[in-house]
Amino acid sequence: MRSLIIAAIVIALSACTFGVPIGGHKQATPGSTTKSKYGNPSSYVVMGKRYYVMDSASGFTQRGIASWYGEPFHGRRTSSGETYNMHAMTAAHKTLPLPVHVRVKSLVNGKSIVVKVNDRGPFKDERIIDLSYAAAKKLDMVGAGTAQVEIVALNSPTDSGRSKVRAIPLDQADKDAGIFVQLGSFGSEVNAINLKNDLKQNNEKPIVISRFYTGKATYYRVRLGPLLDVDEADSVQKRLQRKGYHSTRIVVGED
Protein backbone atom coordinates (compact mmCIF):
# COMPACT_ATOMS: atom_id res chain seq x y z
CA MET A 1 0.00 0.00 0.00
CA ARG A 2 2.83 2.39 0.94
CA SER A 3 4.53 1.72 -2.42
CA LEU A 4 1.30 2.58 -4.25
CA ILE A 5 1.01 5.90 -2.41
CA ILE A 6 4.63 6.83 -3.19
CA ALA A 7 4.11 5.94 -6.86
CA ALA A 8 1.03 8.18 -6.99
CA ILE A 9 2.98 11.08 -5.47
CA VAL A 10 5.80 10.65 -8.00
CA ILE A 11 3.33 10.68 -10.89
CA ALA A 12 1.63 13.82 -9.55
CA LEU A 13 4.93 15.67 -9.14
CA SER A 14 6.07 14.69 -12.63
CA ALA A 15 3.13 16.65 -14.08
CA CYS A 16 4.12 19.97 -12.57
CA THR A 17 7.05 22.25 -12.01
CA PHE A 18 6.96 23.96 -8.61
CA GLY A 19 3.17 23.88 -8.74
CA VAL A 20 2.93 25.27 -12.32
CA PRO A 21 1.37 22.78 -14.79
CA ILE A 22 3.43 22.28 -17.93
CA GLY A 23 0.64 20.56 -19.86
CA GLY A 24 0.86 19.24 -23.40
CA HIS A 25 1.22 22.61 -25.14
CA LYS A 26 -1.93 21.99 -27.15
CA GLN A 27 -2.57 24.17 -30.19
CA ALA A 28 -5.10 26.96 -29.70
CA THR A 29 -8.40 26.12 -31.38
CA PRO A 30 -9.78 28.87 -33.63
CA GLY A 31 -13.45 29.63 -33.19
CA SER A 32 -16.00 32.39 -32.83
CA THR A 33 -14.80 34.96 -30.32
CA THR A 34 -16.14 38.14 -28.79
CA LYS A 35 -13.98 41.22 -28.34
CA SER A 36 -12.65 41.53 -24.84
CA LYS A 37 -13.96 44.36 -22.68
CA TYR A 38 -10.32 45.16 -21.98
CA GLY A 39 -7.39 45.79 -24.28
CA ASN A 40 -9.39 47.15 -27.23
CA PRO A 41 -9.29 50.96 -27.06
CA SER A 42 -9.26 52.72 -30.42
CA SER A 43 -5.70 53.77 -29.58
CA TYR A 44 -3.17 53.75 -26.74
CA VAL A 45 0.29 55.13 -25.98
CA VAL A 46 3.37 53.18 -24.86
CA MET A 47 6.75 54.87 -24.39
CA GLY A 48 5.57 57.96 -26.23
CA LYS A 49 4.29 56.12 -29.31
CA ARG A 50 0.61 55.83 -30.24
CA TYR A 51 -0.78 52.54 -31.51
CA TYR A 52 -4.16 52.21 -33.26
CA VAL A 53 -6.11 49.02 -32.56
CA MET A 54 -7.68 47.37 -35.60
CA ASP A 55 -11.48 47.07 -35.75
CA SER A 56 -11.13 43.71 -37.51
CA ALA A 57 -8.41 41.17 -38.23
CA SER A 58 -10.07 39.86 -41.39
CA GLY A 59 -7.47 39.26 -44.10
CA PHE A 60 -4.60 40.30 -41.85
CA THR A 61 -1.11 39.00 -42.69
CA GLN A 62 2.29 40.22 -41.51
CA ARG A 63 5.94 39.21 -41.72
CA GLY A 64 8.64 40.16 -39.28
CA ILE A 65 10.49 39.17 -36.13
CA ALA A 66 8.86 37.11 -33.37
CA SER A 67 10.15 37.00 -29.81
CA TRP A 68 8.84 35.26 -26.69
CA TYR A 69 8.14 36.08 -23.05
CA GLY A 70 7.96 33.79 -20.07
CA GLU A 71 8.65 33.47 -16.33
CA PRO A 72 8.66 37.15 -15.19
CA PHE A 73 5.14 37.59 -16.63
CA HIS A 74 3.73 34.17 -15.76
CA GLY A 75 0.57 34.56 -13.67
CA ARG A 76 0.18 38.26 -14.40
CA ARG A 77 -2.87 39.88 -15.97
CA THR A 78 -2.77 40.28 -19.76
CA SER A 79 -4.20 43.27 -21.63
CA SER A 80 -7.38 41.29 -22.37
CA GLY A 81 -7.90 40.57 -18.68
CA GLU A 82 -6.89 36.92 -18.85
CA THR A 83 -4.07 35.53 -16.71
CA TYR A 84 -0.88 34.93 -18.65
CA ASN A 85 0.14 31.28 -18.73
CA MET A 86 3.55 30.76 -20.33
CA HIS A 87 2.63 27.09 -20.91
CA ALA A 88 -0.45 27.92 -23.00
CA MET A 89 -0.43 28.66 -26.74
CA THR A 90 -0.92 32.43 -26.64
CA ALA A 91 0.74 35.58 -27.92
CA ALA A 92 0.88 39.37 -27.72
CA HIS A 93 0.44 41.81 -30.62
CA LYS A 94 0.39 45.61 -30.71
CA THR A 95 -2.68 46.29 -32.87
CA LEU A 96 -4.76 43.15 -33.52
CA PRO A 97 -8.17 43.09 -31.79
CA LEU A 98 -8.21 40.93 -28.65
CA PRO A 99 -8.68 38.03 -28.65
CA VAL A 100 -7.98 36.62 -32.11
CA HIS A 101 -6.42 33.39 -33.34
CA VAL A 102 -3.49 33.56 -35.73
CA ARG A 103 -1.30 31.05 -37.48
CA VAL A 104 2.40 31.72 -36.94
CA LYS A 105 4.79 30.11 -39.39
CA SER A 106 8.55 30.11 -38.85
CA LEU A 107 10.35 31.26 -41.97
CA VAL A 108 13.48 29.65 -40.54
CA ASN A 109 12.36 26.01 -40.29
CA GLY A 110 8.87 25.99 -41.81
CA LYS A 111 7.13 24.93 -38.57
CA SER A 112 3.66 26.32 -37.98
CA ILE A 113 1.47 26.83 -34.91
CA VAL A 114 -1.88 28.38 -33.97
CA VAL A 115 -2.01 30.75 -31.00
CA LYS A 116 -4.59 32.98 -29.34
CA VAL A 117 -3.53 36.64 -29.22
CA ASN A 118 -4.72 37.95 -25.85
CA ASP A 119 -2.07 40.49 -24.85
CA ARG A 120 -0.32 43.66 -26.06
CA GLY A 121 3.32 43.85 -27.16
CA PRO A 122 6.14 43.52 -27.98
CA PHE A 123 7.28 47.14 -27.66
CA LYS A 124 10.88 46.61 -28.66
CA ASP A 125 12.80 47.08 -31.91
CA GLU A 126 10.94 45.85 -34.99
CA ARG A 127 9.37 42.80 -33.39
CA ILE A 128 5.81 42.09 -34.50
CA ILE A 129 4.63 39.38 -32.08
CA ASP A 130 5.55 38.06 -28.63
CA LEU A 131 4.90 34.33 -28.26
CA SER A 132 4.38 32.42 -25.03
CA TYR A 133 7.15 30.06 -23.94
CA ALA A 134 5.08 27.07 -25.09
CA ALA A 135 4.50 28.58 -28.53
CA ALA A 136 8.15 29.53 -28.94
CA LYS A 137 9.18 25.99 -27.97
CA LYS A 138 6.91 24.56 -30.68
CA LEU A 139 8.71 26.73 -33.24
CA ASP A 140 12.15 25.76 -31.87
CA MET A 141 13.08 29.39 -31.18
CA VAL A 142 13.46 29.41 -27.39
CA GLY A 143 17.24 29.23 -27.55
CA ALA A 144 17.63 31.84 -30.29
CA GLY A 145 15.09 34.15 -28.65
CA THR A 146 13.76 35.48 -31.95
CA ALA A 147 12.83 34.21 -35.40
CA GLN A 148 11.50 35.49 -38.70
CA VAL A 149 7.83 34.53 -38.98
CA GLU A 150 4.68 35.04 -40.98
CA ILE A 151 1.37 35.78 -39.21
CA VAL A 152 -2.03 35.00 -40.72
CA ALA A 153 -5.24 35.86 -38.86
CA LEU A 154 -7.69 32.94 -38.76
CA ASN A 155 -10.73 34.71 -37.33
CA SER A 156 -11.85 38.12 -36.21
CA PRO A 157 -13.75 38.73 -32.97
CA THR A 158 -17.22 40.20 -33.14
CA ASP A 159 -17.88 43.47 -31.36
CA SER A 160 -19.03 43.08 -27.76
CA GLY A 161 -20.57 46.55 -27.73
CA ARG A 162 -17.58 48.51 -26.46
CA SER A 163 -17.25 52.10 -27.52
CA LYS A 164 -15.22 52.46 -30.69
CA VAL A 165 -13.92 55.80 -29.49
CA ARG A 166 -11.19 56.21 -26.90
CA ALA A 167 -12.31 59.55 -25.62
CA ILE A 168 -11.57 61.58 -22.51
CA PRO A 169 -14.50 61.07 -20.10
CA LEU A 170 -16.73 64.13 -20.03
CA ASP A 171 -16.26 64.49 -16.29
CA GLN A 172 -12.49 64.79 -16.83
CA ALA A 173 -12.43 67.33 -19.67
CA ASP A 174 -13.93 70.70 -20.44
CA LYS A 175 -16.41 69.98 -23.24
CA ASP A 176 -15.81 73.47 -24.70
CA ALA A 177 -12.01 73.22 -24.76
CA GLY A 178 -11.37 69.81 -26.34
CA ILE A 179 -11.02 68.40 -29.83
CA PHE A 180 -14.17 67.06 -31.49
CA VAL A 181 -15.42 65.59 -34.75
CA GLN A 182 -18.52 67.55 -35.78
CA LEU A 183 -21.13 65.70 -37.80
CA GLY A 184 -23.73 68.40 -38.35
CA SER A 185 -25.22 71.76 -37.40
CA PHE A 186 -29.01 72.10 -37.38
CA GLY A 187 -31.55 74.85 -36.90
CA SER A 188 -33.86 72.21 -35.42
CA GLU A 189 -32.99 70.55 -32.14
CA VAL A 190 -35.10 67.54 -33.16
CA ASN A 191 -32.83 66.89 -36.15
CA ALA A 192 -29.77 67.09 -33.90
CA ILE A 193 -31.31 64.60 -31.46
CA ASN A 194 -32.18 62.24 -34.32
CA LEU A 195 -28.56 62.26 -35.50
CA LYS A 196 -27.34 61.70 -31.95
CA ASN A 197 -29.62 58.66 -31.59
CA ASP A 198 -28.43 57.31 -34.94
CA LEU A 199 -24.81 57.60 -33.80
CA LYS A 200 -25.61 55.77 -30.57
CA GLN A 201 -27.11 52.90 -32.57
CA ASN A 202 -23.80 52.74 -34.43
CA ASN A 203 -21.89 52.39 -31.14
CA GLU A 204 -20.41 55.90 -31.28
CA LYS A 205 -20.02 57.91 -28.07
CA PRO A 206 -19.74 60.20 -26.22
CA ILE A 207 -21.90 62.53 -28.32
CA VAL A 208 -22.45 66.17 -27.43
CA ILE A 209 -25.14 68.54 -28.70
CA SER A 210 -24.03 72.14 -28.19
CA ARG A 211 -26.03 75.31 -28.82
CA PHE A 212 -24.53 78.08 -30.94
CA TYR A 213 -26.07 81.55 -31.06
CA THR A 214 -25.46 83.79 -34.10
CA GLY A 215 -27.55 86.73 -32.91
CA LYS A 216 -30.28 85.85 -35.39
CA ALA A 217 -30.76 82.15 -34.83
CA THR A 218 -29.79 79.22 -32.66
CA TYR A 219 -28.01 76.19 -34.14
CA TYR A 220 -27.56 72.76 -32.60
CA ARG A 221 -24.21 71.17 -33.37
CA VAL A 222 -23.69 67.42 -33.05
CA ARG A 223 -20.17 66.48 -32.04
CA LEU A 224 -18.30 63.37 -30.98
CA GLY A 225 -15.71 63.79 -28.23
CA PRO A 226 -13.80 65.30 -26.52
CA LEU A 227 -10.87 63.43 -28.08
CA LEU A 228 -7.29 63.14 -26.95
CA ASP A 229 -5.52 64.81 -29.88
CA VAL A 230 -5.68 65.55 -33.61
CA ASP A 231 -4.36 62.09 -34.50
CA GLU A 232 -7.22 60.42 -32.66
CA ALA A 233 -9.73 62.86 -34.18
CA ASP A 234 -8.42 62.00 -37.65
CA SER A 235 -8.80 58.27 -36.93
CA VAL A 236 -12.35 58.77 -35.65
CA GLN A 237 -13.27 60.91 -38.67
CA LYS A 238 -12.08 58.21 -41.08
CA ARG A 239 -14.08 55.56 -39.24
CA LEU A 240 -17.22 57.68 -39.31
CA GLN A 241 -16.81 58.21 -43.04
CA ARG A 242 -16.56 54.44 -43.57
CA LYS A 243 -19.90 54.17 -41.76
CA GLY A 244 -21.50 56.66 -44.14
CA TYR A 245 -21.13 59.89 -42.16
CA HIS A 246 -19.45 61.97 -44.86
CA SER A 247 -20.20 65.50 -43.62
CA THR A 248 -17.66 65.55 -40.83
CA ARG A 249 -14.97 67.98 -39.78
CA ILE A 250 -12.49 68.29 -36.90
CA VAL A 251 -13.14 71.24 -34.60
CA VAL A 252 -11.56 72.64 -31.47
CA GLY A 253 -13.63 74.14 -28.66
CA GLU A 254 -16.08 76.70 -29.98
CA ASP A 255 -14.85 76.66 -33.61
Model description:
By secondary structure, the protein is of the alpha+beta class. It has two domains: 23-153, Beta Barrel (Barwin-like endoglucanases); 170-252, 2-Layer Sandwich (Alpha-Beta Plaits), CATH 3.30.70.1070. Helix content is 18%, strand content 32%. It has four helices and 14 strands. The protein has helices at 2-14, 133-138, 189-201, 230-242, and strands spanning 16-17, 20-21, 43-46, 49-52, 61-69, 90-92, 100-106, 112-119, 127-132, 146-153, 179-186, 207-213, 218-227, 249-252. It has a six-stranded mixed β-barrel with strand order 5-9-6-8-7-10. The chain has a four-stranded antiparallel beta sheet with strand order 12-13-11-14. A two-stranded antiparallel ribbon has the order 1-2. 30% of the residues are buried.
Entry keywords:
single chain; 255 residues; alpha+beta; Barwin-like endoglucanases; Alpha-Beta Plaits; 2 domains; 6-stranded mixed beta barrel; 4-stranded antiparallel sheet; disordered N terminus
Could you give a short description of this structure?
The protein is an alpha+beta fold and 255 residues long. The protein has helices spanning 2-14, 133-138, 189-201, 230-242, and strands at 16-17, 20-21, 43-46, 49-52, 61-69, 90-92, 100-106, 112-119, 127-132, 146-153, 179-186, 207-213, 218-227, 249-252.
Write the layout of secondary structure elements.
Blueprint: H1 2-14, E1 16-17, E2 20-21, E3 43-46, E4 49-52, E5 61-69, E6 90-92, E7 100-106, E8 112-119, E9 127-132, H2 133-138, E10 146-153, E11 179-186, H3 189-201, E12 207-213, E13 218-227, H4 230-242, E14 249-252
